[in-house]
Amino acid sequence: MSSKEVKAALKSARDAIRNKEYKEALKHCKAVLKQEKNNYNAWVFIGLAAAELEQPEQAQGAYKKAAELDPGQLLAWQVVRSWHKLIKIRKEGGAENVELHQLWKKLVQLLEEGIQLKDNEIEQLFLNAFEEAINSSEPVPGEEHKKLYREFLQTVSKFPHESSRMKKACKEMMVVYPNMSYPLEVLCLHFIQSGNLTEEALGCCQKLLDIDSRSGPALIILGIQSLQERNYNGAEKKLSEGLQQFNQCPVGWCNLGEVQMKMHKYQEAVHSCNQALKSLEQLNDLSFIQQQKNIAQHFRARAFIKIPGANYADEAISSLNQILDKNNDPKLIALRGQAYLKKDLTDEASKIVKELQLAHPDLAEAHFLEGLIRYRQKEYHQAEMSFQRAIAKEGEIAEFHFWLGLTYWFMNEETRKDKSKALTQFLKAAKLDNFLGDAFHYLGQYYRDVAGDKNRALGCYKKAFERDKTDGVTGAAVVDLSTELGDLETALAILTEVTEQASAGRAKWAWLRRGLYYLKVGQHSQAVADLQAALRGDPKDPNCWEALGEAYLSRGGYTTALKSFRKARELNPKSIYSIYKAAAIEQILGKYKEAIAEYQHILEKSKDYVPALKGLGECYLMMAKSALANYLDGKALDYIEQSLEFLARAAKYRPEVSCLWKLLGDACNCVCVISPSKVNVKVSGFLFGQNIEKCVLQKSDLLSLGGRCYGRGLKLMSSPNTWCDLGINYYNQVQHLTAADSNQNEISELLEKSIQCLKKAVRLDSKNHLYWNALGVVASCKGVGNYALAQHAFIKSIQADQINVVAWTNLGVLYLTSGKIEQAHEAFKIAQSLEPSHLICWIGQAFVAETVGSYETMDLFRHTTELSMHTEGAKGYAYWVCSTLQDKTNRNTELYKYNILQMNAIPTAQVALTKYTERIQNDACAFTMLGYLNEYLQLKKQAADTYQRSVLLLTNSEDRERYNIVMRNYGRSLCALGQCDDAIKAYLATHLIEFDDIVGIALSYFKKGNFQESQKAYEKALAIADSEQDKAYILTALAIIEYKQNRVDAAKTVLFKCSILQEPNMESLQALCSLGLIKQDATLATAALKELLKHTGKKDDVYKRCLLATAVYALQGRHLAVQRQVSKAVHSHPDNPALWSLLSRLVPRYVPQNAKGGAVAGNIACILDLNHGKKALLNTAVNQLATGCHKAENKKNILKAVHLSPDDPTAWAVLLAACHAENTVVHLHNKQSKQTHLEKMIVTAISAKTKAKELPASRAQEIEEWSLFQAITGLNEAGRTSEAEALCEKGLKIFPEQPMWYLLLRQVQCKPLLQSHKELPDAILEELRKAVLSNSTLITAWHWLAQVYQSQGMMVGAEMCYRKSLKLASQQGNLSGKLCSLLRLAKLALEICMANVSNDHWPSLVQEATTEAMKISFCPLGILFQALMQYNRKMGSRETRRMLERVVYQSGFPETVVSVARWYLLRHLYAKDDYELIDALTANAKANGDIRVLELDKKLSAAAS
Prior knowledge:
It contains 80 helices and 2 strands.
């Protein structure tokens, strides 16, 4: 559609409207809008047509669009005027009100958007139309009418110049709707905005409150009225309530901000001003908006200046800048100077002061700002003058007076002392501004600190706190003063109010003080909660942490309290109190060493800090008591000495503190249980009133000192507890003097004092069961013997405390000593029921059982040792254990097995008796029993020492029988230690009357090597021997003496004489069998063994019998019988680790084919017993080497064996063998050896260990020689010829008489020649042959010569050498050598066959040699050689595959053998093109890590493709 067509369409639309064809007009307009969407005339015509078609919404939308397109054109509003005229015509034409009402409403809707054009004519049309619409509504008011009225009032109130019309409309609406609040609210808002609270305004407010007491506008008017009347509290309340109901009132918010500024609520004032600025955004009256915005920004700036924090100064400056852009009020400029000063921009503030003083010399604010600057710079005199000038200009401003008072407060020393000037100014400030809390705060401080009037100070502080509930300093002062004046309720009420209103992390001062209050009144949990809240406010306050620690400590939370005090110390390292409390808690928790360290740290800072000295003394005292409980008397004495040192220092600084003297008495009293010979304690001379620094006291003096310390404490403060301690101290002195056989009169005097002291304690506190119990103990002792009083005291103690296990036990002891067994049993029984773990009542029951001869006695004594250590229980149990051990007739009884073996009685009794003898050192019987138990435990040195102690105690004794017994025991223990001379002296002291003494000295002579004296003694013992068993033992000993003197036949004669006794002993038969083995007499050894095996013997003899039997079988050459004998013994006694260890040791030597089982046996021995396990671990490693196992696990076992037995040369030898085996395997697999240069180091270690261990010469030589051979072989194989040759020369020097070293040297030297593959001269061959002939009994020498001949192509000579070695091995009965010779012979023949030499001799030789080898034992190499022979004969035959597969897939073949078989099998399968079996074989090779076969597979596969 072209522009001409658009004009034509618009013309047609206009014509249609004129002709009242409105639908046709719409069609033309829509056609135009399709072409031009923003065509103004089209939208106007649509509005006219839609209005005529009674489509007001479409008409209104069209008019609105037209107005948006071109607000300046009046065509649309001309249409509105036309509409207005139309309504007028309809009205004149007699139209009804309903129709007119609808028309006026439509006109209002059309005019509503036009109001934004600010056209007065349109505004008047709009308002008139609204009034007409209201007036034309139904006569009876309804909801629609009410709604229309509200909309009209809401609209007209937006036009400030239409206030009269608005008032008129409100009054008319009030007439129609008298109970409706809306018109009154509109009027009130009008009065609020106008700022003129006339009588009319207050009347409207009252009427509105009558209708709605919670009306926002009405409450706002009342708040403004209260503000004008300076009723700030009421104003704040009413304004807050009103704005809560109606928050879109900027005047109300500004007034609330002003009120809050008056009340110094600056944060709240900022909020109110922000709300005022926010609500102004909804208004249209620019002049009103600017006016209120200036007011809000002014209050906002002043509030920000008053809020602490430099960041708020920027906000203040920002607000002031917005005002000062339009209003350069000097007071606002001075306010900006304060903002600069708040930001520490003193120069800018000073610049403002100068400018204001020049331009406005009478401006008080300028002088005030200058005063603030001077005050900030601490130029108080200049500040004083500036503030005075400000006050002179405006004397009614409280802030000026307050700052002048503050200046006086800090001015100088004189003013600070006087403070009267400051008081005057603070009083004026408080009078002028009743809400100035700071003024009241300083008044409170003045009355509290200067005037000393706490009541008046409290009043001032309360006023200050009422003004600002967030002022923690003032609140704290109010609470503290209230507490001081005894008004705890007020203090608690304030604290509760503050804490309830405080947010998280706020009001720390209140939480802290309430926490301390709850701590004081014993509400510990609440105290903890409050103090935790205080710490949330300031987690770095050490005082809070200390208070929290006290709270935790009060409710028993020691760990958390300790953490709190440690935190306080971390925050304040100088706080001694925190360190002290942490140490005290560690002391309570029993962490005495940690507590001591803390106390010492305190003393480094303050050496005279008495609580720390006292704490150190207590800690060492508690450690001493703990050491005494564990019978560590020496350590206890050290602790007692240190305790006395620190407590004496504390008492020296504070002698008036009674508890220090009591602790000193306790420390002295602790030595009562320690042996007097041990007690030599250094004590400060201060305790004796002397000037000497230290003085050494013995037990009696120390106990006496303890009594004097208790007496000193009683003089300072009489307490029943100290009287009781003093009585016990006198009793302990009596016990000591009695043991030392002192003067009886002194003992009686002390006992009387003890009784009187305890009676005094009972009189002072008759309800304390401990005092009654102590009185009973003293009354029942031998020196007093008042059993009636003792019984009465124990009963009174029980009455005082029903659960009194100690009193019941003591009562039982009293009955037991009086011979009243039944009553004693009942008393002990009750004590046991009250506390089953109480030790002494169990000891009492054990004594009762012993008295009546009960079989439960030993069990009861044992139970006492399980509960705890006690001297009576320890000695009693040791006595019963020793008695049971001495009775050798009960060894196989169940009672013996249970009491001694299962209950581990011997070690338990030994430990208990060791502690007993440490404590009680004058009991010879106890030392004798301890020596006896040490002997059983093989503690020979300890046994000799304890027997010696017993001998010393009985040296001057009249009881010679006991002395002789002890000397006999002593001599036996010395003999066991090898101290034969001392043992002989000990036996000679017994006069050699008893059989045991004679036998003992005979053994001592024997061990010394004096065989003649030993023989004489044994013969003397034989003459007086009573039993056949004793005679058999003596005859066996005599036979051993004969053998030692190289009289073998005589020894045999004596042993045969022993065997014909009626009761021959096992030892004699074992000796006879051993003699046969030593002399290689198989007949004698076999006969003795047969006789030995006839006796079943005991379990302890199984190992010896088995060892002898296997030795006999080995002598007979029955190697398989050796294993069977041990296996049979193991089967019968599977729990015997010695047998398992023996099996693991014998298997690799006699039946190496069963080495895998030998390794298992060694592992079992390790599991059963670590002692046997050390050797068994080594045997396990040897077995694993014998099986061809060279894995890391085996080496780990060997290293563990070396670690467990580093001094055993055999362990190092096995390690050397393992390294050699590993290097050999690595060489076979063409890998780099990891174990290099170890041979020399291990050989050196073996040599050193052999010398240190002092082995027999033959055994030492054998080990050292073997290790050298092994090392040389390893070095030679590794190609390190020079090193191997050096070791050979070393061997020749050490063993020059042995020709095999010469042969070994030749082997080493010859190796390079053989590797060169050159033909050797006949002379060299002859020399080598001579070297072998000089060692013709060595199988390996012939093997080496055969290798030399083979390298020279002398195959027949090589065969003859191997046959020579085979013959030699057969003659020597060396199965290993025989097997090795056969296999080497087979290998030689196989190599010749593989070289395709046509001779039937060699294939038959392979078959013959391997067959013979497999007859000896299972031989993997023999089977492999046969398979390879078959491969060489018929490579592609089925038999070849079968024989090779047997080696590859059957278990039991070493991996090295399997690898060779796998290699040939792979070649066979590729020749047969059997790819399925090839895949299976390569999978097997991968699983076993056979890289060599896998590489061959790749080559063959590539060749086949």
